[in-house]
Amino acid sequence: TFKKYKGVVALHEVLSRTGSQSVIHSVLQLLNSVAHDESTGTEALTVTGVVPEVLKFISPAQKEFDLAPIRLEAARFARLVCLQSAASLQVFLTCNGIRSVSNLLRDMCCSDTNVSYGILDRLALVEVAIDCLWGIVNGTDVIPTDDACRLLYNAGLVEPMVHALKFLSGISEQAQAQNEASPLSARSTPSPIMPRMLNLSLQPTNGGHEEGEGPAASPRDAGEIGSQGEKKDGSPAAPDRNGTVASTPGDSSAATPPSAAQAQAQAQSPLLSIAERVTGSSTYPEKVAGLLLIMSCSDDVVKGCLTQVDLLQMIVDSTKSLSGNVLLMTLSFLKQLSDEPEFVENLHATGSIKKLMHLLLELDSKEDVHQKLTILELISNMGQVDRSNLEIAASHGLLPCLCSLAFTGEPWLATVLPLLFSMPSSGRKCRQGLWKNEAPKLFLTLLRNREWQQKALEALITWLASDGRIEDFLLGREVLEKIVAALKDRDTLFALCHKMLLLCHRSPRLSIALSVNADLTQALVGNLVNTDASNLLSILRFLDLLYQHHPAPKKVVSRELLERLEQLTHDSIAGDMLLVKDKAKTMISTLQINAVL
């Protein structure tokens, strides 16, 4: 009936002509009620031209209309337009509604002129603004994600979103400190888009997001349009004592307790675990962190803006008050930017490496696994840009943390060990830290680990070239026994033999110590029956090296060794075994001299 009698057009006329605050507020309330009506909907409203008229009151130019009730009703209408359909979102973007939302968010979070607004009013306005931005980024059937991020950047929304993150997190922290779920706390509701956002932090954005995201529930809102946290009559569901909005019975996105299989998958796949944790609870601080994370996966122009010194300073400083999923996504945001040319330099200029290291040390290794892993991956990326960054991190306590985590075992090894292996070549301070935290013992232990044994030996070789203490360590009786015990394993011998040659070339003292070990010589001779040319050649060269360094070379010569070498010189040996054949002939000539003597 309202639509039939041109009621929307009449409201538009009143809105554009009246100067009464109460009338404007009443008209905006009525428009929101009409927009909630399924028979009318926002699409019918958008064709009347009322949208740009309403947007004026989100950030009004006239001071007499700069009132929280008016701005809140206008912002709620904008949220309906953003979220209800693709057609209405198109109208919102066409009317440059994103600029109005940007001004609103800046007024509430970045400006000192909002002193007249109470904390609850500011919170409600910020939440509605975030819901609008969420709807724009999710509207991939209307605008690609990269383009949406570019619009947010052009509208100057980056800085306001960072301030909004600090504002919302501060309110949540205040509520937790009071040990109550007050209206000040950021409400939560499941959000299926979160796993996709975390995938974006590891791969280029593809513009694909889940469709149909509703706003997070707010007890101040007179009516919500999302399927999550909403009553059948369109009003928001009341939050429980923990500030969480209960899901409706038909809501398939509601978090469910993980099964045993899911728990096992979590242990095996950090990405899956992060996704499940974030999906379980999406608060407004998480939404802001998620928006920033999506923008960090956008094009180079947007990413370049995100690496500015002031923004990085604010974001790193904000991590002090963040926790859980919000902290995880904020750290993922930083990690995603770590391959940008200016990121490392600007982050260093802010002194943030030290702050990140303190955060790494403060996080609990059991409760905050993913947060710690993300920081370590960020540091690793920075080290690939410039090794001096690793030395800076080492000076702030990185190495004790790395060694402690490495001795713990999984799930840390894949992230921690590459960092540790790069430390011997990253400067004197790094090597001193490694020595102080018994990293040589760790590397020695890893010689029995099939996945990491070659990298561990390479790290010892690199370290040996710069630090004489490593040679003394390797010459220890127990260490020599462990090296020989590892090489007696056939697979380990084949994997490490060529690198052991390099290690012994760099340390003649080690060559002498190994040459007098009968068990090692016997293990090398016993594996001369291998058919792989590269393995055979490595073993022959290793035997030759030990023979040359033995104090009494005659003791190396044995009937079994000569017989094995003779077999390798047969005419049937051909093709890729020619180098092996030549090396065997040369060794026989040398060994026979000692055999005669």
What does this structure look like?
The protein has 34 helices and 2 strands. Helix 7 crosses helix 10, helix 12 packs across helix 13 and helix 22 packs across helix 23. 65% of the residues lie in helices and 1% in strands. It has a two-stranded antiparallel ribbon. The chain is elongated. The longest helix is centred in the first third of the chain and has 20 residues. About 17% of the residues have low confidence. With 597 residues, it is mostly helical.
Oligomeric state as shown = single chain
Given the C-alpha coordinates, what overall shape results? Answer: elongated
Please give the count of helices: 34
Q: What is the structural class?
A: mainly alpha
Distance between the termini: 117 Å
Characterize the largest beta sheet: strand count, sense, and whether it forms a barrel: 2 strands, antiparallel
What percentage of the residues does DSSP assign to strands (E)?
under 5%
- The residue fraction in helices comes out at 55-70%
Q: Mean pLDDT across all residues, rounded?
A: 78
Descriptive keywords:
elongated, mainly alpha
Produce the secondary structure layout.
Layout: H1 7-17, H2 21-36, H3 41-46, H4 50-55, H5 68-84, H6 86-94, H7 97-109, H8 119-138, H9 145-154, H10 158-177, E1 188-189, H11 193-200, H12 260-268, H13 270-280, E2 282-283, H14 284-295, H15 300-306, H16 309-318, H17 324-337, H18 343-349, H19 352-362, H20 369-385, H21 388-395, H22 398-408, H23 413-422, H24 428-436, H25 439-445, H26 453-464, H27 468-474, H28 477-487, H29 490-506, H30 508-515, H31 518-526, H32 533-549, H33 559-568, H34 578-596
Antiparallel strand pairs: 1-2
Helix pairs in contact: 1-2, 2-5, 5-6, 5-8, 7-8, 7-10, 8-9, 8-14, 10-14, 10-16, 11-13, 12-13, 14-17, 17-20, 19-20, 20-21, 20-23, 21-24, 22-23, 23-26, 26-29, 29-30, 29-32, 30-32, 32-34, 33-34
